[in-house]
Amino acid sequence: MEPLQLNVALLRRRVPQLTKAARSVGLRPATVSNLTTGKISIARTEVRTLVALADLADCSLDDLIIRGERYEMIETGIKTIDLFAPLAKGGTAGLVARPGMGQLVVLAEIFHRLKKEDYQVVVLKPDGDFPEVNDITEDVEFVYETVEEADLKVQEIGTERDVIFVADRSHVQNGNILSLYEKWSSLQSVTTFLVDFKGEAVDEEFPFGPLETVWQFDSELSARHLYPAIHPLYSTSTVLEGTNLDQHHFKTQQKAKRHLRRYRELRSIVRVSGLDSLPEQEQRLYKRGEKLEAYLTQPLYVAEAFTGQQGESVPLKEMLEDVQKIIDGAVDDRSVEVLTSIGALT
């Protein structure tokens, strides 16, 4: 079957206020969000929804639906990201978090890792006083105060090199990002990160417009100091659609999601009544879910000075094998503590 993709870039250009526009024609913003980020595939989407989106974008269905295109995954070596919400090369990723949940540490880690892969990082500083920006730009060569300066640099280096571009959500709201996308369409590859320095995006249903990747940060994981605190169920990516993703990766990811979803449901029961209140089979599932959650934490290179732990990178193939082992019970004899903040299983 020929793979089908929603033309998210076209939607982004023509319908920047997609939330309001979708609601105005009777579409649920959550449905549109799930469709644009890959949670809902085009094959499972009602025709009337696609027709309404095409009308909003003033285009035909043939323009809205891309046939045969695949999103390339940027492998980061960060286990929870590569498993649940792979970074789409040339796409736009939105980081949704309240202040203090670790989103800037993750962003700095991405810079650190991708610079080793010869990506060039360009940061457009947000308007206003955000001193924490300095923490993530210490090792970034290209940091600019104005849209014009950032645009010139991306165009200069983007003809021959892959670029990572970072901007604040305010530049989405004022239309700057939309105009930049139109200028950069002919460049080699510009992967954009949108960050909400004010921490307001977490309260909105569709904060960044159409995205290829969403990293939703989890307040519970953050409160329990389980980092990176990427939500395993709410974070997603267009790369996760079955036509794009390696089927082994896709199946492992789905198993892990189901396991962690049930584990999270059982946590409330265990907190109140204790583990022994669960049937034996549910106890086993709970313990493995706890270990999987622990395994998906990871020491980061940029945090070495603060944690005292050496950063770890785990290849995708090895990570998938490890996740399968945990779900199958191959590490039932290991404690949660042993599996916390490690790299690969040994």
Descriptive notes:
- The structure is a single chain.
- The chain is an alpha/beta fold and 346 residues long.
- The chain folds into three domains: 64 residues, 434 Repressor (Amino-terminal Domain); 120 residues, P-loop containing nucleotide triphosphate hydrolases (Rossmann fold, 3-Layer(aba) Sandwich); 93 residues, Bovine Mitochondrial F1-ATPase, ATP Synthase Beta Chain, Chain D, domain3, CATH 1.10.1140.10.
- It has 17 helices and eleven strands.
- The strands form three sheets. Strands 7-6-8-9-5-10-11 form a seven-stranded mixed sheet, sandwiched between helices.
- Strand 6, helix 8 and strand 7 form a beta-alpha-beta unit.
- Helix 13 crosses helix 14 and helix 13 crosses helix 16.
- The longest helix is centred in the last third of the chain and has 27 residues.
- It is globular.
Alpha-carbon Rg, integer: 20 Å
Order of strands across the biggest sheet?
A: 7-6-8-9-5-10-11
Which ranges are low-confidence, i.e. pLDDT below 50, for 5 or more consecutive residues? Answer: none
CATH topology of the largest domain: Rossmann fold
In percent terms, what proportion of residues is strand? 5-15%
Tell how many strands the DSSP assignment holds. Answer: 11
Shape: globular
Global structural class: alpha/beta
Helix count? 17
CATH architecture of the largest domain: 3-Layer(aba) Sandwich
Largest β-sheet summary: 7 strands, mixed
Highlighted features:
346 residues, alpha/beta, 434 Repressor (Amino-terminal Domain), Rossmann fold, Bovine Mitochondrial F1-ATPase, ATP Synthase Beta Chain, Chain D, domain3, 3 domains, 7-stranded mixed β-sheet, two-stranded antiparallel ribbon, 17 helices, 11 strands, 44% helix, 12% strand, globular, ATP synthase A/B type C-terminal domain-containing protein, ATP binding, ATP synthesis
